[in-house]
Amino acid sequence: MRVQTKLTSLLLFISIALMAARYLYQTFENQRVYGLFQEEINEKEVYFTKLMALKGANLKTLSTDYTYWDEMVDFVRGDKGMTWARQNMDETVLGTYQADAIWVYRLDLSLAYAIKGEGAAGLKDFPLSREAVRDIFLKKRLCHFFVNTEAGLMEVRGATIHPTADNDRQTPPQGYFFAGRLWNKGYTDELAELIGGEIAVERTKQAVPDFKVLLETNMIIFSEELDDWKGGPAAYLDVRIHSQQMEGYKKSSRNAMATFIVFLAVIVVVITIFMTTSLSMPFGFISQALKKENPVRLRPLEKDTSEFGDISRLIFRLFQQREDLIREVAERKKAEMRFQQVADAAEEWIWEVDGDGLYTFSSAVVEKILGYKPEEIVGKKHFYDFFLSEDRECMKNEALEAMAARQPFKNFINRNLHEDGHVVWLDTSGTPIFDEKGAFFGYRGVDTDVTERKKAEEGLREAYIKLKEIQEQLIQAEKLNAVGQLASGVAHEVRNPLAIILQGVDFLETKIPPSSGDIFEVLAMLRENIKRADKIINDLLDFSRAAHLNLAPSDLGLVLETSLDLVKTRFKFDNVVIEKEIKKDIPLVLADKNRLEQVFINILLNTIQAMPEGGRIIVRSYDKKLEEIRNGIGKRAQDSFYFGELAAIVEIEDTGCGIPEESLKKIFDPFFTTKGQRGSGLGLSVSRNIIHMHRGLIHAESAPGKGTKVTVILKLAERA
Amino acid sequence: MTKKKRILVIDDEADFTKLIRLNLEQTGKFEVKTENRGSAALAAAKAFKPDLVLLDILMPDLMGSEVAAQMKEDDDTKNIPVIFLTAVVGREEVVQRGGVIGGHLFVAKPVDIKQLVEVIDENIR
């Protein structure tokens, strides 16, 4: 319930309470007035009775004083004449005692004397019979009653007559005395005047109105029964008094009530005004200000010294703070929106992570970059969850270590897995974020998708490698060309003298007798060395000619078969068995057939020569994915094959004595030979050159005592 | 006794032609004439009418290949078999190619006389 409603209710309650108080007061006042009125009525009645007694006292005195009197006894006995009676009971006596008539009876109930005043002139006789008189005095000596006469209602007092000495009337009565007074208008008016009201004599009893009516009219009405000689009603006195006192009471009561009401009204008004000005209005201002959210409505309370003033100033301040806050929030929202717009518009992925690397914010562009919606990332993914599985542990630890240092980082290049499974290269930069208290909160940063750049770089790198290779090839070719030119020049120039020497040797051999052993031996040595020199020249020429490859897609199996045939037809090796494990239908290789044949022949010849005691040679060829890590396979610029590349493999394995490790390292070096003077040391070197010119690999493995295996790896035609 | 086969040896190396002549003649099967100038080779062939010509390729005045071409164009010499005797091509290569390069017979220098005689015997008409 609102305070104002409460205040109104309180006011209403106070009003009701005050009205109740007024009602109670009224009730008490009424009861008091009733009481007073009742009291007054009683008082009036008593007063009237006393008044009647007082007014009747003369008559009573007359009836009692004249009846214990010897002279009166004498009179009723007849001892005194009428004169005495006329002298002692004349008009003056009537006037003195305010009586209208006197009747004196003898003991035998005969009338001894009677006198009537002017007022009772109409009265004929004593209004009661003689029997009645006798009955009256049979029981009592004094009597008082009313009787209706022709002249009107008469009050009668009577007494038995006794001697003077017997004022207690102990002696037997000597006669009977009656004094009567007529209750004419004059008398009742007099009474009425004394009582301060109106008096009416009625034959029947008049109904007295209800007390409330009397109270309302301020009338005191009561009826006084006037008894006859038997005790029954002879008449009724109807007394009506207008109570001035009650009127005064009531007036003062009314005034008091009015004053009380005015007082209450003043209280209500004062409370209302107080509540309105001191409570309701300030509440109203505050309520309106709060409801309309308009602090201007608090202006009237600005200088108020009460608590409301304090509250209103506090609210005012709060409103101002709120406005500041709203402004600030709006500014922040604007800034946030700007940030969001920038984040949305940016090609870069803007993010925030907590201390554990869990994303707390992600711009929408992440969907373009990694295929995930921001809501699939924020609170669900750590930055390292996207790393490639092979990179993850290492890069996660590296990144967490960097984060632990709370240092900004830049251009952290990392590989991530797109939702669809392809690799995305990201360039990540970040800076630590701290809250207002300086506590570390996490990192905020930017990821740039550098996949294209990486691809371009990769392409560039590949192109560079190719270029480098070509350059190297060119340099090599140039070198070899130079060597070749030199070699061919030298070859020609040397071969000719050699030819001459050989012809000379041939000639001399025909000229000496077979018995001259030493000369013959020398000539044989010359011949051998001429051939050796010629071999060196040939190898040198081969070495230089490697630059000139005539590449074409070639069937490796066929090349091997040709090489084997050539070896078989030209060299005798009865004790060597050659086993072929040549896989059919492998992809074509890009090769210069003749050069490749030369390589295989070289290797085979070396192998055969390595087994002077005979043995077994296994020639094997197949294709496979290169999944071993070794020189020449990988991502480095100088590598010929990438990891996992499909390539053609040729293995030539023997069961010879093997090659010691030290020699194995050098077998492809130019001029290295284990064959002593029989070899030029260029055969395998030339072979290696040829294979390298094919962008292939050649290597040898050997287990001393068990044999040697030479492996040649060649590029497939569609990949070369 | 059968008539000796005539061999014309054309090579700018006089020592070589001399020794070849001596060695071939030593076999008793051949009559040998030598010529050291390429430019004189055709005339020598026309005059000598050999059964086979041993022809050097690299000669200072005229290349052996040109001499062979001239001989091919001349009716007198066009049917004479020519064996190139050269220091330019290696022995092994010649062997690998079965002695034939570009449609011509080749013998690489240095060659021993035994081998040479074998080739001559195989190809002489």
Can you lay out the helices and strands and say which pair or pack?
The complex is a heterodimer of chains A (720) and B (125).
Chain A: H1 3-65, H2 70-77, H3 82-88, H4 91-96, E1 101-106, E2 111-116, H5 130-139, E3 142-149, E4 152-160, E5 175-182, H6 185-195, E6 197-202, H7 211-217, E7 219-227, E8 233-242, H8 244-292, H9 307-345, E9 349-354, E10 359-362, H10 366-370, H11 374-377, H12 389-404, E11 409-417, E12 423-434, E13 440-449, H13 451-511, H14 517-545, E14 552-554, H15 556-570, E15 576-582, E16 589-591, H16 593-609, E17 615-625, E18 646-654, H17 661-666, H18 683-693, E19 697-703, E20 707-715
Parallel strand pairs in A: 15-17
Antiparallel strand pairs in A: 1-2, 1-5, 3-4, 4-5, 6-8, 7-8, 9-10, 9-13, 11-12, 12-13, 14-16, 17-18, 18-20, 19-20
Chain B: E1 5-10, H1 14-27, E2 30-35, H2 41-48, E3 52-56, H3 64-73, E4 82-86, H4 91-96, E5 100-101, E6 104-108, H5 113-123
Parallel strand pairs in B: 1-2, 1-3, 3-4, 4-6
Antiparallel strand pairs in B: 5-6
Detailed description of the structure:
The complex is a heterodimer of chains A (720) and B (125). Chain A is of the alpha+beta class and 720 residues long. Chain A has five domains: 66-182, PAS domain (Beta-Lactamase, 2-Layer Sandwich), CATH 3.30.450.20; 305-334; 346-449, PAS domain (Beta-Lactamase, 2-Layer Sandwich); 452-546, Helix Hairpins (Orthogonal Bundle); 549-715, Heat Shock Protein 90 (2-Layer Sandwich). Chain A is built from 18 helices and 20 strands. In chain A, the strands form five sheets. Chain A has a five-stranded antiparallel sheet. In chain A, a hairpin with a 5-residue loop joins β11 (409-417) and β12 (423-434). In chain A, α13 packs antiparallel against α14 (517-545) and α14 (517-545) runs parallel beside α18. The longest helix of chain A is centred in the N-terminal third of the chain and has 63 residues, at 3-65. Chain A is rod-shaped. Chain A starts with a helix and ends in a 5-residue tail after the last strand. The model of chain A has no long low-confidence stretch (mean pLDDT 84). Chain B has a six-stranded mixed sheet with strand order 2-1-3-4-6-5, with helices on both faces. With 125 residues, chain B is an alpha/beta fold. Chain B is built from five helices and six strands; from the N terminus they run βαβαβαβαββα. Chain B has a single domain (5-123), classed as Response regulator (Rossmann fold, 3-Layer(aba) Sandwich), CATH 3.40.50. The chains are: A alpha+beta (720), B alpha/beta (125). At the A-B interface, α13 and α14 of A face α1 and α4 of B.
